[in-house]
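S.,

As promised, the guanosine-5'-diphosphate run. Input:
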Amino acid sequence: MSAIAPGFRSGYVAIVGRPNVGKSTLLNRLVGAKISIVSPRPQTTRHRVRGILTTEDAQLVFVDTPGFQTLHGGALNRALNRSVVRTLEDVDVALVVVEALRFNAGDRQVMELLKRDRPAILAINKVDLVKDKGLLLPFIQQAAESYPFAEIVPISAEKGAGLEDLLATIRRHLPEGPPLYDPGEMTDASERFLASELLREKLFRLLGEELPYATTVVVEEFKDEGDLKRIHAVIYVEKDSQKAIVIGRKGEKLKEIASQARLDMERLFGTKVFLDVWVKVRRGWSDDERMLKSLGFDV
Ligand code: GDP
Ligand code: MG
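Predicted complex:
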């Protein structure tokens, strides 16, 4: 082991916030790679994904959480919420993300989950959308009154604004200690998991309103063959009618989904990818605890 620079800090940072505030965008931006899927629809992140950022003087291990869900009471959502609470018990700093000028009951619910015995830093995201910057200061004051945040930092995850400041702020609240992961690593998620996330993202981007919530992806086979990866994935849906939509006329939709996912995989893995995707019906998967467990959720 090489010597660790004096003053080096490291720790776990949970990114929490109601759906759609920009948590995944922020994580990807900070870590510099597409490791958490982003979509304009809420609740596309279902698993905890770690992004690792190693700088000269710190290592931040980010934990992306699923958006705290209150809309539905199914087994899937119960599992999602439990996962947020568990994550918060386990980190050094909670990074709470809200949207600038949009603070609602969902945000308040997230704050109720925070542990008062450790620092919470508030990132006010999407400041690029605020036309009248004069409205930001009162919003910051209002946020400061809603919870004893250690610090408040305005950012734009999408434009990359305020992120240096955010990193320095988080670092100040981490304990001194050596890196927790190999500094060359960006994530501890497996390539197999990343492949399923990239495919799932395409479902969110390319299918209509409700359908993506009724689908899930399982990677059945992931084989390294030199500079080729052979990946076999199954998209599970709830009903035959949904299967027809995912496949599309003459298979066009599925072809588009698979080819976009393949391109993202090739970019991320830096190899050729042979991707084979099937669509299968499994009734009630999203309210079936056994199925969820087999997919790796905490239920
Ligand atoms: P999550 O559900 O909290 O993980 O949110 P996502 O990262 O999936 O982002 C939700 C939506 O907000 C996406 O359409 C993003 O492109 C968008 N978004 C995220 N950050 C910003 C930002 O700083 N500015 C703007 N204008 N949009 C953003
Ligand atoms: Mg997300």
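The CA atoms of residues 199 and 228 lie 18 Å apart. The chain has nine helices and nine strands.

- D.
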